Amino acid sequence: MGLRGIDTLGSLEGLVVGVRLDLNTPLKDGEITDDGRVHAALPTLRELAARGAKMVVMSHLGRPDGKPDEKYSLAAVAKRLQELWSGSVKAVSQVSGAEVQSALSEVAAGDIVLVENLRFDARETSKDTEERRAFAEELAAPLDCVVSDGFGVVHRPQASVVELVEAKPSSAGLLIEAEVKVLEALRSNPERPYTVVLGGSKVSDKLGVIDALLPVVDKLVIGGGMVFTLLQAQGHATGSSLLEADQIETVKGYLSRASELGVDIVLPTDIVMAESFAADAPSTVLPIDQLESGPAGKNAIGLDIGPDSAQHFAEIIASSRTVFWNGPMGVFEFDAFAHGTRAVAAALTEVAGLSVVGGGDSAAAVRRLGFDDDQFGHISTGGGASLEFLEGKTLPGLKVLGW
Ligand code: ADP
Ligand code: MG
């Protein structure tokens, strides 16, 4: 089955269209530090405006506790969206209800009403289907139809991702269509050698991905915060680095399955061990069997892959025909620990076949490190979503769109 596209909704002239986007952008001191997801949302918004619709835009931001929290307000996103949008963008302080209705009565076709962070209401992420459905009905009340385009959340069974889409005539937006097209090419018929590079800090989320990807990839290259659990599984001490201690046994199983399947799991051979978690922390490059031998001993924290590893990873990546990369190789937000991530990003730009970067922080990293989006085959707005797609899982937010 294929995704239902915007065309299936018929004429949108004069209608109110709810648009579920992923505008979950990184913020620092109340300002957006990477607006990639806002840009990625524009084609669908332009398409709907061209068809004469008013739009109610909805998104989550971060993980507030199911209640309003200034820190997670979409205010900064509203400001950026208004800078990029030719019509008006009216931000309301509620998620649904009277304020949304009255804002809608004040705007014209082609204008946007941006509701507040959906996760300010605990029912958005509730485990209880009835609660989610009740919330979705409130969201749906002012809408004629729904366009779902928040690719970064399609793996989450949440009210605005599933129940809202079921509540009204609905379709996928252009971003979801584009993402699915590229990822489907990776999933069904990748040119080989096919290398997947994993890193980042959502360790427990991502360790399971290793197992799921083993049957499909030729090489699995691993760095970032998740690597220390693998190094421990191989018997290395890792100081005070990020660790998922209860996963070590599971990971040992992955390592032996990889060798049975003939898949290379490529781990770093050296690590940049810092004396503390800070931008200016003194650090030492150490081989993986001596990570506690530096001045900070057991207190040292691995914040980046070392230069030998970075070079080795880059060679593997550049000589692959298909590469998918999710998760920074180190704490790239600190310049001193961005080298591994920069080396991997640079190698991806040299891939002769298809190179895909996935994940909010990974996409932010390549831009922060000075790369252009068009140096890569595709930059996916979804990290968890793209990984689950590549694993072959059924994603609830795509299933309701006919996928
Ligand atoms: P993505 O958003 O691309 O899916 P994640 O959210 O999993 O990636 O991880 C991104 C974060 O991982 C970054 O903020 C980065 O600082 C952090 N990170 C990378 N390597 C390490 C490490 N060795 N120790 C701690 N954090 C790390
Ligand atoms: Mg992230």
Give a description of the structure:
The chain is an alpha/beta fold and 403 residues long. The protein has 2 domains: 6-173, Rossmann fold, CATH 3.40.50.1260; 182-391, Phosphoglycerate kinase, N-terminal domain (Rossmann fold), CATH 3.40.50.1260. The protein is built from 14 helices and 17 strands. The chain has helices spanning 36-50, 75-84, 98-106, 129-140, 163-167, 174-188, 203-213, 227-233, 248-261, 307-318, 339-348, 360-368, 384-390, 396-399; strands spanning 16-20, 27-28, 31-32, 54-58, 89-91, 112-114, 145-148, 170-172, 194-198, 219-222, 264-266, 270-274, 283-287, 301-305, 322-326, 354-358, 378-380. The chain has a 6-stranded parallel sheet with strand order 5-6-4-1-7-8, sandwiched between helices. Helix 7 (203-213) packs parallel to helix 13, helix 8 (227-233) crosses helix 9 (248-261) and helix 10 packs parallel to helix 11. The termini are close together. The model has no long low-confidence stretch (mean pLDDT 96). Bound molecules: adenosine-5'-diphosphate (ADP) and magnesium ion (MG).
